Amino acid sequence: MPVAAGSGQALCIDAFAYKRWAMQRTLAAVHAVDAQAFPASVAFARQQLNHIALVEALFRARLLDAPAPHAATNSAEVPALAVLAERLVDSDRWYAGYLAALTTAQWDAPVRFRFADGRDGCMTRGEILFHILNHATYHRGAIGHALDLAGVAHPADTYTVFVHETQPQRRGGVLPA
């Protein structure tokens, strides 16, 4: 069954486009930090990006009913920024494709899983996707503080900026068809 315009699923598809856009802006800002002068800010940003990537991989496995690819939501060694950026781009691409192929029936289907802390969980696929969006937003906000400490302007990555930047006709009061 195709996604109905105006449905929660259709809005989620748009929200994942926003997430990709916002993550690219965040990654560009983190790349602009002088790592020699502000090593703590870069380390914190990398840790947050690593956490986002690991959590997204864990939930991807849960959506696919596959084994957990990681035992935890953080790792002792944090990959280089370029590696994290690649993982996050790949993750965003995968989630967008997954969401686009999801049927209405699958959207509300429960997914039972085990969290990294060993506790059981159950969420619908739609709830998992909402969590992925919300989780990344939370951690991009934390990265914004690290950017402030390093003197790098953090990007305005709100949904309103995204909508008006990617659909400039809205400035003239015209909604997309």
From TrEMBL:
Record protein name field: DinB family protein
Matching InterPro entries: DinB, DinB/YfiT-like
This protein's record includes keyword Metal-binding: yes
Keywords from the named record: Metal-binding
UniProt KW Metal-binding keyword: yes
PANTHER family cross-referenced by the UniProt entry: PROTEIN DINB, SLR1116 PROTEIN
Family: Belongs to the DinB family.
Top-level division of the source organism's lineage: Bacteria
Organism of provenance: Stenotrophomonas mori
